[in-house]
Design brief:
Elements: H1 2-32, H2 38-71, E1 82-86, E2 92-96, E3 102-105, E4 118-127, E5 130-135, E6 154-157, E7 166-169, H3 171-178
Antiparallel strand pairs: 1-2, 2-3, 3-4, 4-5, 6-7
Helix pairs in contact: 1-2
Length: about 180
């Protein structure tokens, strides 16, 4: 239902903007036209309809964009409360409500509710057939003993024999190893 509400919201905003434009633009254009002939009235009517034509063009372009993203690239249009993006190595990342944390999974064998799906992925890098990344990233790394340190969390997922295992470490565990 999230994408439906977003489409309704932007449709209403577009209609309000087109209505305001169709009210203001003819008044501005009438100052630059001379007379009240038939050609002048046709021009004013065309100017009055122009914002609605632009709104229709934008809606048509969005439909084209959404269809191409879904059918050709297997992505969603990115305006709802969930975003999905396939990765080049067969995995996919999906984010719900926020774009700074997501789920990493293999769509052929898993979904985001699967035990093997990695959640809370906040850092991701593709390097050939490997996926490098991190989970459970804190906003800042605790420096002193007075700050509460969350336990290191390592999430690993191995799909099939021969596939590279994906292990995502917390930033805190990586920082501790490098110190």
């Amino acid at each position: 239902m999230g994408i439906g509400l977003v489409l309704i919201f932007w449709g209403v905003v577009g209609l309000i903007g087109a209505a305001v434009g169709s009210t203001i633009l003819p008044r501005i254009a009438s100052h630059f036209t001379q007379g009240t002939g038939k050609n002048c009235r046709e021009l004013i009517v065309a100017i009055r309809l122009f914002p609605f034509v632009c709104l229709g063009w934008a809606a048509g372009f969005f439909v084209f964009y959404a269809v191409v993203n879904e059918i050709v690239f297997h992505r969603d249009p990115g305006i709802g409360d969930g975003w999905t993006c396939p990765l080049p190595n067969g995995y996919a990342i999906e984010m719900i409500d926020v774009t700074d944390r997501g789920f990493l999974y293999n769509p052929k064998t898993q979904d985001i509710n699967s035990i093997d799906a990695l959640s809370d992925v906040c850092v991701l890098q593709l390097a050939g057939r490997y996926i490098l990344g991190g989970v459970d990233c804190p906003a800042n790394i605790p420096e002193g003993p007075e700050e509460q340190v969350r336990p290191d969390r390592i999430s690993c997922s191995a799909q099939e024999p021969g596939d590279a295992a994906i292990c995502l470490h917390t930033r805190l565990s990586v920082v501790r190893r490098l110190r």
